[in-house]
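Milestone 3.1: sequence recovery, worked example.
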């Protein structure tokens, strides 16, 4: 024990030095500023000026320090002796020089560096002396033990008397010897060092009397150690925060120094609570922040240690609740005039300032000291209900304290996070118990029985957070809109999440009236809260908070729908529920009402993504069009369209654009899903679609691009602008990868149909090609030129593919796979068809003055020339080879003449503007 005392004392001295360094630096800077101002009153250049302050050099610094310590503001310097009547005022003494020191604001000079003599003699000598004094006492006791000079009782008595003498000496020095040194040497005060050394001696003597020699029992040792710790804590009010840390450490370590076979949790935590509250009260009187934060952390650590071998959580929970109450009552919150609180705008910068404001260390240590033991309480087995109630009580108390104290950010946030983590942890424990008891099979009745207390606790916590949040918002939304908005996020999200977790793990999926009624009540309370705040004028300063409450209410009602209905009914009812909010815009001009409809439609899309059949693959009817998919997809699409029409005159452009985009998406999705259902024999599965089905999807995406482009023209929006281009790009990718590649009947061997023209090639190539051509024509003056060219090229490529594959179908029949080879007449027909396409595109390009069509014509003609010279020359024989080259030659000559005529006309016309000015020789 005595070997550890030097290390303990060194640690204490290090903490004292670290904590007080900033104080002495700041004080020295202020003293240097005062000295500079005083010296300015006695200019050196004044011939007739007499010293305004006359005092011995050795007393100057002491007097200045006394003025700073005894007065909150620097006092005026002592007046100079009255000058002789015949002498005039010094020329350098102006009105500014005669002003009080506090009234003048000259630039503050840099604090003078401390001399080596002062550092060694006034500071480190004190520290070294205190350490040497403590070690001397320890070594003296150790020597007496090793030499056997004195008995154990005498040694302990001497050690205790030595500690008391040191404490008394410290108090005597503080009162008599150096009354003015505290201002200059606050971190090297001789009284504090003597008191700390005496306290260490007393702690060591009492512990040795109990733990080594067993002279006293555990009860008396506990009382003596506690009295010593509290005494040191009381003396810290005179000697500073470092000594308070020593007293706190002694009080928190006292239970560890007492060995007992039957520890009493009630006694332990009553003592720890008293120590923590006393530390907080003493720190509040002196304005300390480090020691009370450590006290809170140590009490939380004690709670975690006690929970390892828990027999009763009640004293632990009550001790932590008492710590929360002490934090709430002892430490004041921010006032409404605090710049970090009052009128804080709703921005990330303001939120960051709020998160870093107030006694940050106290708030965070309190929250973690409560939160971590509360979470550990849950890991006591799924059937134990008392720890569950302890968890709920701690989380609710922490949230209530954070709400009650103005400006407290972290207790509220961490309490919310703790509630959500606790719900997840406890639900995971229930699931683990289910697996252990019943294997991997899900026994709904057993799990419901195990989780019934958990369900009640989770729903109760959700109700607590709702009531706390709405009360805080109603009380402070005007003076603190930022934190009120944070509370609205908690109120809107956390209760719904807690209720959802409870329903998912412990609810009855067929029809759960408990969760449904709770969700309905929750949604109604949130709407009532929004209405009450709106009537109190919160719409102007708390608009986002009201919007969040509305979103929380729709989430609660959606949970109620899931608890009472299932499948397609839930999906259909989500859209009318959101539409009811949107129609409420006729009565309330709340900006969040239309966004509720957007949220409802997003929920519909989530359910569609979860199960596209809406009723399950087995229950889906195989009748085309007239099946469950028509109302399941069609009703939300129709309501989305009606919502967009209802908001045609709404002031918010973003929500209007969002509804129009969702209406377009749901409408096209409805058509696409019905087509897929019809073309796959009434089955929706994950198989690769056919070319015909994919062609419909491509047409839908092309149509979506055109619709978004139209919406962008009516209501310009980046969402519509880039969304239309994204849809067009997706359609182009589908063309390249699917129409021309994976689903091409030339590669797959798929039947093209028995009819000559109305067949798979028509829907797979010609119709999408015309769609691209129409979209390119529509977008030519509305979108960037490269994008328009890509659309036009995609249409041209599909048209070219349609002509080419139609030629092959003419010669090969219904099936046109590549493994059937080519006939000579078929090869010649390709050249004729391609030349016809080239000529046709050239004529259209000339007619509409479309350079892109003329370029496409040139590309096709070049491709035809390459085919004739590379393929026809090798594969054709006789008259077909000759006809191929003769026809190509005539076509190329005709194209050349056509281009010459066009280029000549464009060159001559600008020069013949005025016939009277034409040259006479032409």
């Amino acid at each position: 024990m005595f070997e550890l005392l030097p290390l303990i004392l060194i640690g204490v001295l290090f903490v004292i030095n670290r904590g007080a360094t900033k104080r002495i630096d700041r004080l020295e800077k202020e003293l240097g500023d005062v000295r500079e101002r005083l010296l300015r009153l006695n200019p050196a250049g004044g011939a007739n000026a007499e010293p305004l302050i006359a005092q011995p050099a050795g007393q100057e610094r002491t007097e200045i320090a006394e003025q700073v310590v005894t007065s909150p503001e620097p006092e005026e310097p002592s007046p100079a002796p009255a000058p002789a009547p015949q002498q005039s005022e010094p020329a350098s003494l102006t009105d500014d020089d005669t002003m009080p020191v506090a009234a003048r604001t000259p630039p503050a000079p840099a604090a003078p560096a401390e001399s080596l003599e002062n550092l060694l003699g006034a500071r480190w000598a004190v520290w070294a002396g205190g350490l040497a004094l403590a070690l001397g006492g320890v070594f003296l006791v150790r020597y007496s033990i090793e030499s056997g000079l004195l008995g154990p009782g005498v040694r302990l008595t001497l050690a205790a008397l030595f500690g008391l003498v040191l404490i008394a000496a410290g108090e005597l020095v503080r009162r008599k010897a150096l009354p003015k040194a505290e201002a200059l040497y606050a971190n090297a005060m001789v009284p504090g060092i003597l008191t700390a050394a005496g306290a260490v001696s007393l702690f060591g003597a009492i512990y040795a009397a109990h733990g080594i020699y067993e002279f006293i029992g555990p009860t008396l040792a506990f009382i003596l150690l506690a009295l010593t710790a509290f005494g040191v804590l009381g003396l810290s009010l005179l000697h500073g925060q470092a000594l308070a840390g020593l007293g706190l450490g002694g009080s928190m370590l006292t239970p560890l120094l007492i060995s007992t076979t039957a520890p009493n949790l009630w006694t332990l935590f009553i003592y720890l609570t008293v120590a923590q509250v006393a530390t907080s009260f003493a720190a509040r009187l002196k304005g300390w922040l480090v020691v009370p934060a450590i006290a809170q952390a140590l009490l939380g650590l004690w709670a975690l240690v006690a929970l390892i071998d828990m027999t009763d959580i009640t004293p632990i929970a009550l001790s932590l609740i008492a710590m929360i109450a002490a934090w709430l009552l002892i430490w004041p919150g921010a006032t409404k005039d605090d710049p970090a609180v009052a009128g804080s705008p709703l921005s990330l910068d303001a939120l960051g300032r709020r998160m870093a404001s107030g006694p940050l260390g106290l708030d965070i240590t309190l929250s973690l000291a409560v939160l971590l033991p509360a979470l550990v309480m849950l890991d006591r087995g799924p059937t134990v209900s008392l720890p569950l109630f302890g968890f709920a009580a701690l989380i609710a108390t922490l949230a209530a304290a954070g709400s009650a104290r103005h400006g407290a950010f972290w207790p509220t946030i961490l309490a919310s996070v703790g509630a959500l983590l606790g719900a997840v942890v406890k639900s995971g424990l229930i699931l683990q118990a289910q697996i252990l008891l019943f294997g991997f099979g899900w026994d709904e009745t057993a799990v419901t029985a195990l989780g019934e207390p958990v369900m009640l606790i989770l729903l109760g916590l959700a109700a607590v957070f709702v009531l706390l949040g709405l009360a805080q918002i109603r009380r402070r939304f005007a003076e603190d809109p930022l934190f009120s908005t944070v509370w609205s996020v908690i109120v809107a999200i956390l209760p719904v999440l807690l209720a959802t977790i409870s329903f998912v793990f412990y609810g009855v999926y067929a029809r759960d009236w408990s969760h449904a009624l709770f969700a309905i009540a929750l949604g109604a309370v949130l709407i009532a809260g929004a209405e009450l705040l709106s009537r109190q004028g919160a719409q102007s300063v708390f608009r986002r908070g009201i919007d969040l409450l509305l979103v929380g209410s729709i989430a609660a009602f959606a949970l109620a729908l899931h608890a009472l209905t299932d499948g397609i009914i839930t999906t259909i009812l989500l859209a009318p529920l959101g539409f009811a909010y949107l129609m409420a815009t006729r009565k309330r001009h709340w900006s969040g009402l239309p966004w509720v409809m957007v949220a409802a439609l997003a929920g519909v899309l989530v359910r569609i993504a979860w199960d596209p059949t809406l009723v399950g693959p087995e229950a889906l009817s195989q009748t085309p069009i007239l099946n469950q998919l028509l109302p399941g997809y069609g009703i939300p699409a129709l309501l989305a369209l009606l919502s967009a029409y209802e908001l045609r005159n709404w002031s918010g452009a973003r929500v209007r654009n969002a509804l129009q985009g969702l209406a377009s998406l749901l409408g096209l999705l409805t058509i696409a899903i019905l087509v897929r259902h019809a073309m796959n024999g009434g089955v929706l599965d994950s198989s690769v679609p056919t070319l015909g089905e994919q062609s419909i999807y491509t047409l839908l995406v092309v149509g979506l691009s055109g619709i978004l482009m139209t919406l962008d023209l009516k209501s310009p929006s980046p969402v519509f602008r880039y969304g239309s281009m994204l849809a067009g790009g997706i359609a182009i990718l589908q063309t390249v990868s699917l129409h021309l590649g994976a689903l091409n009947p030339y590669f797959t061997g798929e039947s093209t149909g028995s009819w000559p023209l109305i067949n798979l090639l028509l829907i797979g190539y010609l119709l999408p090609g015309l769609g691209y051509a129409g979209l390119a024509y529509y977008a030519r003056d509305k979108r960037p030129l490269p994008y328009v060219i890509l659309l036009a090229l995609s249409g041209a490529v599909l048209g070219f593919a349609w002509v080419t594959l139609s030629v092959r179908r003419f010669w090969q029949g219904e099936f046109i796979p590549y493994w059937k080879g080519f006939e000579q007449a078929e090869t010649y027909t390709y050249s004729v068809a391609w030349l016809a396409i080239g000529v046709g595109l050239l004529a259209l390009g000339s007619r509409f003055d479309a350079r892109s069509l003329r370029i496409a014509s040139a590309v096709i003609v070049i491709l035809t020339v390459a085919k004739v010279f590379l393929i026809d020359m090798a594969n054709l024989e006789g008259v077909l080879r000759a006809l191929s080259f003769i026809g190509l030659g005539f076509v190329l000559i005709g194209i050349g003449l056509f281009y010459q005529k066009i280029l000549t006309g464009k060159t001559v016309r600008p020069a013949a503007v005025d016939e009277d000015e034409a040259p006479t020789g032409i």
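Residues 1-15, 44-123, 180-188, 907-922 have pLDDT under 50 and may be disordered. The two ends are 124 Å apart (CA to CA).
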